Amino acid sequence: MLGYLFRWLPAGESMNIPAIAKNTFELLRNQPEFMNITESVVEHLNKIKSKLEKARFVHNVVDECNKEVFAHPLLKEFVPCKAGCSGCCHTQVSVTEDEAELLLHNIDEGVVIDYNRLSLQSEVGNEAADFYKLSYKERACVFLDENGACKVYKDRPSVCRTNAVVGEASQCDTSTQAQGPLRLVKTPKADMAIVAAFAVAPSGTLPVMLSKVLKERNASEDIGFFKTIFDRFTGRKPVPKDTRL
Ligand code: SF4
């Protein structure tokens, strides 16, 4: 049924699907219990029109899948992740276009970001090797506040929702060294949902996709602005609301 999805996944053709989710998918795609999650998320996404709703739908599925995993008493003991610990927010995060639109919506609602840092991060593109050439400070996610908390926590991307390390928080610290192997909590069901989201929407790193949707929105506003000026100079009057088709 989802033949187009399978064609996306062989090596080299899916650089923006988060690597962990992609590996999980490759391992579990033949198990109906897991593949059903990917299929039903794709089917649902194809029925939703609004990009914000699509992103929120995937986030709800991911949270629901993770509930059981993160409720395990052993994880409570061995996962050191907590507010203010922001090592993973200095790494490369992939998002879908729907998620980028949701982040833009947060900016529209008043969340303030550093546009210079966004520009710097988006200029390096999607390649991880280029991203990690930036300094630790320059790699900080534009949604990270001065206390190390996420300004868009409720609407944070799917990938951020599955990041949980087991053992020492220092494993995630990339301030002095490149990120080595991490012992992460396995979130197989959430990964299957994430693959579905990335299979049906354009995607890239958070800075690249956020810049893209910002530019597209600004361009459409500019067209509206210039059209108003043009109409004014050519003497065209706005069409009264009640006579519009
Ligand atoms: S969106 Fe939030 S949780 Fe995700 S990397 Fe940025 S600051 Fe961290």
Automatic annotation (TrEMBL):
<dbReference type="InterPro" id="IPR005358">
    <property type="entry name" value="Puta_zinc/iron-chelating_dom"/>
</dbReference>
<dbReference type="Pfam" id="PF03692">
    <property type="entry name" value="CxxCxxCC"/>
</dbReference>
<protein>
    <recommendedName>
        <fullName>YkgJ family cysteine cluster protein</fullName>
    </recommendedName>
</protein>
